[in-house]
Amino acid sequence: MNKKKNQWKAWLYLLPALVVLGIFTVWPIINTIRMGFLEGYNSAGERLGQPFSFGFANFSNVVGYREFTTCLGNTLLLTVVTVPISTMLALLIAVALNSIKPLKKLFQTIFFLPYVTNSIAIGMVFMAMFSMIGVVPGRDPDSIGIINTIIEAFGGSHIDWVNQTSSWGANFFVLVVFIVWNALPFKILVLLGGLQNVDKQYYDAAKVDGASRWRIFWRVTVPLLSPMIAYVVITGFIGGFKEYNSIVGIFGDTMGPNTQPGKWNTMVGYIIQNVSGFQGRASAAAIILFAIIFAVTLVNLYVSKKKVHY
User: Where are the domains of the chain?
Assistant: First the structure.
């Protein structure tokens, strides 16, 4: 009897949080699915009593959009390239941080700072670092950005990274550097926490057997950290498919150089661009993106079952 009474108390304590979740999370998800299947849906028409028929026109409009392949391709490319790089770098940095004694807390704080900094602000800093406002005789050295200044100091030639004449490769390099750098803090934190919980006897046994550091890393550290690695990989893919802030931070709302607007647009960028006037189309794109993320997550979970050691 007392147990049943306590359950009601627990539900009562949870009620405010459940109400907030229902209003701001569950209902928007349900409404997004509803709008995605209402052909030509827009909120203004709904308020005026305009009828909308059930169908798949919004999905066909999204897939038939001439820039859809660009948005999807950019999203897939950035995700597939940045997630493995950031995960491997985070693992190496976490192992290094776990091994040092002096200034350990200071370095942990430094590496974690990007996680608590606004990504748009960070993107603007990166844009200033790589920007090349103009290359003219007698120019101000700051006009080519600190990266080009360093390149020229070592005898190289300046590169137009993000401006009008910038190449695809230059744009891609800047985006990868920014996304990887921005993703590192969270992954380092998770992996470092996992390393600190590893029983030291495994390392002592490996050293007694004469295993090299490299062999210890691959045969002891990686298997014991595999649950944490699987977690950061899965969350990394989910975050990668939702990439948007980094593009805006580097290029602004044009999602590309001024002469090529939309060049680096992503699926989330496409959704945001259509929210104001084509809510049905935006909802359909959101459902497509959810389906992609869900499928990739299932694949990751399936692989992790075979590779993760609990």
Answer: 67-275
CB count within 10 Å of CB 288 equals: 20
Total length of the chain? 310
Query: What is residue 38's three-state secondary structure?
Result: strand
Domain 67-275 CATH assignment equals 3.40.30.10 = no
Lookup result for tokens 């803090």: 185
The predicted-structure confidence for 262-287, as pLDDT tens digits, reads as follows 888 999 988 888 887 777 888 888 99
Helix (H, G, I), strand (E, B) or coil at 200: coil
Token representation of residue 106: 């200071």
pLDDT of 212: 79
Q: Which of 200, 251, 254, 256 has the alpha carbon at shortest distance from 224?
A: 200
d(CA 181, CA 89): 10
Place of tokens 């992954």: 187
Q: How far is CA 228 from CA 233, 236, 242, 309, in A?
A: 9, 12, 21, 10
Confidence band of 293 (pLDDT split at 50, 70, 90): very high
Q: How far apart are CA 194 and CA 189, in angstroms?
A: 9
How many other C-beta atoms lie within 10 A of the C-beta of residue 300? 18
**pTM, entire model:** 0.81
Q: pLDDT (tens digit, 9 = 90+) per residue, 121-160? A: 777 777 778 775 544 444 444 466 778 778 888 887 777 7
How many alpha carbons lie under 13 Å from residue 102 in its C-beta half-sphere? 0
Within 8 A by CB and 6+ apart from 163, the residues are 131, 132, 133, 257, 258
